[in-house]
Design goal:
The complex is a heterodimer of chains A (about 300) and B (about 325). Chain A is mainly alpha-helical and about 300 residues long. Chain A has two domains: about 35 residues; about 220 residues, MetI-like fold (Orthogonal Bundle), CATH 1.10.3720. Chain A contains 14 helices and no strands. Classes of the chains: A mainly alpha (about 300), B mainly alpha (about 325).
């Protein structure tokens, strides 16, 4: 112990002064580098946050202030009625209905995507049958067919099957277009669960579905959370499909509602801002809770897609 | 003997398992075929007809819809706008995202918070993003008066009204919305590279930049290519943001004297032709052209990338 300390101090005293100078220079340079890093990151973060903060604070301003002094940061008088009117005012029904429509579509679409994709991914991962890879490839090709390209015939089809002006007319196609990425993420995860576990379950009298339902799905919870979160964000924000399929204000989803509100009450900027802020709140709250799943889903999809 | 008794059981077991596979696969396959494959095939079918979307599909016009689309100023403007967005995304957005990913690829206080903020716009819907930015960018609104406030009033543009500048404005909004997405993908790629490899380069006398350029960047190749690919496809299919923010405007004069959407994209042209002008046939032709664009890019990119990867492997071996 004592001898260690003496060798240490001997070693440090043996370091020539130039090295000390070099070290100081290096730590200064590192310090500058650190400051630069923070400066860049803070500047970018500010650029991201300014529009959002502007919308939040703008929702508390009067229209007079918004138009007369647009660069002012804080409201001169806090107008809470912009927000409370959206939520509880005479036309509050619009907002709640839109939120409910968005929620119904999200629940149905995400439920269908995750359920059907899990079943399909299970066969692709753990069963042997002729044409398996061909069918799997067919699904992966789906990544090349974005909803945008198919929207005109999709609209014709939805009308033909009588799902136009129906929330299902949005939810079902949305679910179908979510299948490829969900299957692609789930398949390797299902594959990684050891065969021994399946054999053991079979010996204990588990059917194939029993194994899938009682063993595999509980084990795959993290992957299921990931694909669900991914599907929720995609469905919640989807715009083109609801725009085309849904007829009439009583079916609008939140993005449609916000857009229409903003064109209908052009001069009432404060109210528009309050409306947008309230409309993005669910997504932000959801994001705060599910950031990890979302990120792991995107990176998995990104790396394998 | 045993083989004989085992056989029938095996066969019925096989049948049962085939049935299970069918039951498991059927719902997904049915939905996928009905809502994805059939519509895509139908788009190709409709594109050969003069059809409003109502009534019988009986006016076959051959390639007329394609000729009309390719000859129209609107479509040509849309293509050049889409290609401009592709170029800007690759030259500006991806390097920017990569730079920030490198800055975030180190443990320091506040890192998680920065990542949270940068990725935030990705979860906000395009339509709502569009509504906010449309308000922000009105003449003499907050952006303009803010720029005047910091003495940059000379740089103010007619952000959404100037036919040449409107695409730049849209690109900035696109970057605001999506750079965090690329950042997250690239950051995950960077974190997959063992720190020791870069340290080994330092020991071998490489500088910070050299280590990044010759060690980190090549190892990050696959991730960058995914990011680039998604960026290209996204730029080619842009619809929501343009529809909400400009609706294609401002309107200018095309080369042949017709009016043209200065900020139009292929997807917007498809939408307007199909729904606003009620020509499902002509709109479908635009949809097919958009799809061909994406498909060629996807295929060509994969070939190119594949070859590059092989070359890379050969040069590192040699």
């Amino acid at each position: 112990m004592g001898s260690d300390m003496t060798t240490n101090s001997a070693a440090s005293s043996a370091i020539p002064t130039t090295s000390l100078l070099q070290r100081t220079v290096r730590s200064i340079r590192l310090g500058i580098w650190e400051i630069a890093r923070y400066a860049i990151l803070v500047a970018v973060a500010a650029a991201i946050l300014v529009p959002i903060v502007y919308a939040i604070l703008g929702g508390f301003k009067s229209n007079g202030q918004l138009v007369g002094d647009p660069a002012s940061v804080l409201p001169t008088e806090w107008v809470f009625s912009n927000y409370t009117d959206v939520l509880f005012g005479a036309n509050a029904g619009d907002f709640w209905r839109e939120a409910a429509n968005s929620l119904i579509i999200a629940v149905v679409a995400v439920g269908a995507t995750v359920t059907f994709a899990s079943l399909a991914a299970f066969t692709f991962a753990r069963m042997v049958f002729p044409g398996r890879e061909a069918v799997y490839t067919l699904f992966t090709l789906g990544l090349l067919f974005p909803l945008t390209v198919a929207i005109l015939p999709l609209y014709v089809l939805i009308k033909q099957v009588g799902l136009d002006a129906n929330l299902l007319g949005v939810a079902l196609p949305q679910a179908a277009f979510g299948l490829p990425i969900t299957i692609i993420i789930l398949r390797p995860f299902f594959k990684s669960i050891p065969v021994e576990l399946e054999d053991a379950a079979k010996i204990d009298g588990c059917s194939t579905f029993g194994f899938f339902w009682r063993v595999l799905l509980p084990l795959a919870k993290p992957a299921l959370a990931t694909v669900s979160v991914l599907a929720v964000v995609g469905t919640w924000n989807s715009f083109l499909l609801p725009l085309v399929v849904l007829q009439g204000a009583d079916q609008w989803t939140l993005p449609l509602g916000v857009m229409n509100f903003s064109t209908q009450y052009v001069s009432d900027q404060a109210r528009i801002l309050a409306y947008t802020v309230i409309a993005i709140l669910p997504a932000i709250v959801f994001y705060a809770f599910a950031e990890r799943q979302l990120v792991s889903g995107l990176t998995a999809g990104g790396v394998k897609g | 003997m045993t083989a004989l008794t085992a056989r029938p059981r095996g066969r019925s077991g096989l049948l049962a398992s085939r049935l299970t596979i069918l039951l498991f696969l059927a719902p997904a396959l049915f939905m996928f075929v009905l809502f994805v494959l059939v519509p895509v095939a139908q788009a190709a079918h409709y594109s050969f007809y003069d059809w409003t979307g109502l009534g019988p599909l009986d006016k076959f016009v051959g390639l007329d819809n394609y000729a009309a689309a390719l000859g129209s100023d609107t479509f040509r403007t849309a293509v050049s706008n889409n290609l401009l967005l592709v170029a800007l995304s690759l030259l500006v957005q991806i390097p920017f995202s990569l730079g920030l990913a490198v800055l975030l690829n180190r443990r320091f206080t506040g890192r998680a918070l920065f990542r949270l903020i940068f990725f935030l716009p990705y979860v906000i819907s395009e339509a709502i993003t569009g509504v906010i930015f449309r308000l922000l960018l009105q003449p003499d609104a907050v952006i303009d008066s803010g720029m005047k406030g910091v003495g940059a009033g000379g740089l103010i543009q007619d952000w959404l009204g100037d036919p040449t500048f409107v695409m730049i404005t849209l690109f900035i909004i696109i970057s605001w919305k999506y750079f965090g997405f690329h950042l997250i993908i690239l950051l995950a790629g960077l974190q997959g590279i063992p720190r020791e490899i870069e340290e080994a380069a330092f020991i071998d006398g490489a500088g910070r930049w050299q280590a990044f350029r010759y060690v980190t960047l090549p190892l990050l190749g696959p991730t960058i290519r995914v990011s680039v690919f998604l960026s290209i496809i996204g730029a080619l299919q842009l619809f929501d943001l343009v529809f909400v923010i400009t609706g294609g405007g401002p309107i200018t004069m095309g080369a042949s004297g017709a009016t043209v959407d200065a900020s139009g994209t292929m997807a917007l042209d498809m939408f307007k032709t199909g729904f606003t002008n009620q020509s499902m046939g002509a709109g479908s032709a635009v949809a097919v052209l958009l799809f061909v664009f994406c498909f060629v890019v996807a295929l060509g990119y994969q070939r190119l990338v594949l070859r590059r990867d092989v070359e890379g492997a050969l040069t590192t071996n040699g």
